[in-house]
Amino acid sequence: MVTSALDGYSVCIFAYGQTGSGKTHTMEGPLNNRGVNFRAVEAVLEKSKSTDDGLTYELELSILEIYNESIQDLLRRPGTAATKLEVSTATGESVVKGLDRKHVESVDEIEKFIAWGAKNRTAGAHAMNQDSSRSHSIITLYIQARSDRGDTFSSKLHLVDLAGSERLDKTMATGERLTEAKAINKSLSALGDVIAALSSGKKTHVPFRNSKLTYLLQDSLAGDSKALMFVNVSPEASDANETICSLKFAARCRDCALGKAKKSQSRLSTPRQPARLR
Questions:
Q1: Please, what is the Cα angle at 206 between 199 and 162, to 5 degrees?
Q2: For residues 158 and 81, what is the distance between their CA atoms, to the nearest angstrom?
Q3: How far apart are CA 21 and CA 24, in angstroms?
Q4: What residues are paired with 95 via a beta bridge?
Q5: What is the 3-state secondary structure of the chain?
Q6: Cα–Cα separations (whole angstroms), residue 167 to 83, 136, 173
Q7: Which candidate, 122, 175, 125, places its Cα nearest to that of 20?
Q8: How far, in Å, CA of 79 to CA of 29, rounded?
């Protein structure tokens, strides 16, 4: 999936599940056992430098969070206030206006920026988790490739750590935490509605605009990209109801066929073969 991004395909990888089920561990991981985010970006970086197909790659990284239906740049300078950003699809591509992109050329730079973004992410305590992520975090790697003849293509790799899904009565949230929980559940419900519409197989309206999350990922879920979702569940018996909900969501995702993925390219003279999926 990850190396397909170097072949001109847009790729989207999610982690979904209730609070405390291991989503952030899956995507970030500790220093001694790195998660998907670091491994994926590192793999793309290393492969882009070792290729012998005559293509030159430029990589940029952005990290944002969607908190209470507001998009915030997690790579903003320390001490600066978060600025509300908006999504535009005027060009046919989902673009966050004003979002900072960092040029990356080394593993050390990747490490620094991912740690920087994680430190700025919104977290808060409730009954299910004392340090729960209260926002959706999206790391995006932008890939620009150019051949010796000047032909180009571009693609994106989205790495998404979704905020925890849970019933409001179980979190015992009040005040600000209750507002956060409602926003999280609304956006996850919108994601479910998009997946349901895509799974129907009919030429029906897909409600991408119902949340900032789905609107932002519209061009990566609209049928031309490759998507994968980790669904995390808790082993605790007390979480059985949440686990059933997560597994039902996983079943809906499994039955969703986006269609044949397409490359984003401009006059590529020597198209590469798509990566074999494992």
A1: 75
A2: 25
A3: 9
A4: 88
A5: CCHHHHHCCCEEEEEEECCCCCHHHHHCCCCCCCCHHHHHHHHHHHHHHHCCCCEEEEEEEEEEEEECCEEEECCCCCCCCCCCECEECCCCCCEECCCCCEECCCHHHHHHHHHHHHHHCCEEEECCEEEEECCEEEEEEEEEEEECCCCEEEEEEEEEECCCCCCHHHHCCCHHHHHHHHHHHHHHHHHHHHHHHHHCCCCCCCCHHHCHHHHHCHHHHCCCCEEEEEEECCCCHHHHHHHHHHHHHHHHHHCCCCCCCCCCEECCCCCCCCCCCC
A6: 30, 17, 10
A7: 125
A8: 26
Q: Both tokens of residue 242? A: 């949440």
Cα within 13 Å of Cα(198), Cβ side = 25
pLDDT profile of the chain (278 residues), mean per 10:
87 92 92 93 90 84 93 83 84 89 93 88 52 81 88 91 74 67 87 84 81 91 82 92 91 74 54 36
Q: Which residue reads 């995390």 in tokens?
A: 232
Question: What tokens were used for 1?
Answer: 């999936």
pTM, 2 dp = 0.85
Strands 152-161 and 136-147: antiparallel
**CA atoms within 13 Å, Cβ hemisphere of 59:** 23
What is the per-residue pLDDT for 31? 87
Phi then psi dihedrals of residue 59, to 5 deg: -120, 135
Residues sharing a CB contact under 8 Å with residue 195, sequence separation 6 or more, in sequence order: 252, 253, 256
Specify the pLDDT at position 124: 45
Which domains are present in the chain? 3-266 (3.40.850.10)
